[in-house]
Design brief:
The structure is a single chain. 39% of the residues lie in helices and 20% in strands. It has 414 residues and is an alpha/beta fold. It folds into three domains: 8-78, Arc Repressor Mutant, subunit A (Orthogonal Bundle); 82-212 and 387-402, ATPase, nucleotide binding domain (Nucleotidyltransferase, domain 5); 218-380, Nucleotidyltransferase, domain 5 (2-Layer Sandwich), CATH 3.30.420. Strand 14, helix 11 and strand 15 (377-380) form a beta-alpha-beta unit. The longest helix is centred in the last third of the chain and has 25 residues, at 314-338. The two termini are 17 Å apart. The structure holds zinc ion. Residues 255, 265, 267, 269, 272, 274 line the site of zinc ion (ZN).
């Protein structure tokens, strides 16, 4: 796998190619004439590029229309079976991997425990995971819809998501709260383990890519993904692009200050949103409430705390309502700053249900600037480990659909 420098003509062609492919992904099934109109490329260029995409098995011709006579128009759509990608979400103790097709449909999954907490150990575990998932591709039968493909299916890359501040262009983990790493060239270490392009990003950004291409962010230019769970994070999509800030640090929503001089946060500061609304933070507050005699027992898991709220323990409900209120206030600030069309709230913390989200929604109504609330829809989605891994896979799919830089995806696996 090499990234060969391109001449101007090749670069133009690569840009046009990814433009055409992204339009087919977003608006397909789509006729060639509509593609020409949307991309403002000449019909001859469209014919050439689409022929190439069909030859590679990435796109196929689909007959659309009723049977009332006449020629059925031919439209182009992304061929889900045109290739495979692997995504991996790295967590504190283990990695969760997903093998998906080009529509991010989960085909196989894998969970492996980490051997250690060094960058090398994480890279080795990812290498092992990729080898095991890649073996699944070789074993897969070619579905009938794949009969038009001219080339064997390929593994197009590995996407890796992990919490922390990442410099995506350098493949660098600038800061990892889980592992205590600083400035680790993780992408190169993983690249030594696998024979395919590797893409690395903050885990919440990978979710933003899944939402943009396959989820509730499709066709929406300005939306935010807010995650609650182990931490509190945010992915920012502005004008259709994930916003990174100058070196990848944008979106540290969990560390905005909601209570100056308040509870200690994992980042070393005090009074951060995460110190009140993450699941570990709420368990700490429950422990304190138990010691004050306000809770009948000390919950060990977030689910247990939810059950206590369900069964009427007012101190448990109060922890959720305080967290929900702070979360809602903070989301109202986001609405006022970004004027987004949609905010997707997801993550493991969604299990708290109405105990967290009723107060959150009330606070959003109370604190959003008049006139802006009507522009935004708030969606609460429940996501599990597989969704995070699919998110990481979407990082590769994003490169496929949108990157203008031609890469040599030559990892034949069939
Ligand atoms: Zn903090």
């Amino acid at each position: 796998m090499t990234n060969t420098p391109l001449g101007n003509r090749d670069l133009m062609r690569a840009i046009n190619r990814s433009l055409v492919l992204s339009q087919i992904k977003t608006f397909g099934p789509i006729a060639r004439a509509d593609l020409a109109r949307r991309t403002q490329l000449s019909p001859a260029t469209i014919t050439g590029i689409t022929a190439e995409l069909i030859e590679e098995g990435l796109v196929y011709e689909k007959e659309i229309g009723d049977s009332s006579g006449g020629r059925r128009p031919i439209r182009l759509a992304v061929n889900p079976n045109g290739g495979y990608v692997i995504g991996a979400k790295v967590m504190e103790e283990h990695v969760v991997g997903a093998l998906t097709d080009l529509e991010a449909t989960l085909l196989a999954r894998q969970t492996l425990l980490l051997d250690g907490r060094t960058p090398e150990a994480v890279a080795e575990t990812l290498g092992q995971m990729v080898r095991e998932l890649a073996a699944q591709v070789s074993h897969r039968q070619q579905p009938a819809s794949n009969s038009h493909r001219q080339t064997p299916p390929r593994l197009m890359g590995l996407g890796v998501g992990l919490a922390g501040i990442l410099d995506v262009s350098q493949g660098l983990v600038r800061q990892s709260p889980f592992f205590g790493w600083k400035n680790v060239a993780l992408r190169d270490l993983i690249q030594d383990q696998v024979q395919m392009p590797v893409y690395l990003d903050n885990d919440v950004n990978t979710l933003a890519y899944t939402e943009k291409w396959f989820g509730a962010g499709q066709g929406i230019n300005d939306f935010l993904v807010v995650t609650v769970g182990r931490g509190v994070g945010m992915g920012i999509v502005v004008n259709g692009q994930v916003y990174y800030g100058v070196r990848g640090g944008a979106g540290e929503f969990g560390h905005i200050v909601v209570q100056p001089g308040g509870l200690s946060c994992s980042c070393g500061k005090q009074g951060c949103l995460e110190a009140y609304t993450s699941e570990p933070a709420m368990l700490l507050q429950a422990e304190a409430a138990f010691q004050r005699g306000e809770l009948a027992r000390c919950p060990q898991t977030p689910d247990e705390l939810v059950q206590m709220a369900e069964s009427g323990e007012s101190a448990a409900r109060k922890i959720f309502s305080q967290a929900g209120n702070l979360l809602g206030q903070s989301i109202a600030n986001l609405v006022n700053i970004f004027n987004p069309e949609r905010i997707l709230v997801n993550g493991e913390g969604v299990r708290a249900g109405r105990w967290l989200f009723d107060p959150m929604c009330a606070a959003i109504e109370e604190h959003t600037m008049p006139g802006l609330r009507g522009d935004v829809s708030i969606l609460i989605e429940k996501l599990g480990d597989d969704d995070w891994a699919r998110g990481a896979a979407s990082l590769v799919l994003h490169e496929l659909f949108e990157s203008p830089i031609k890469r040599s995806w030559e990892t034949e696996v069939a």
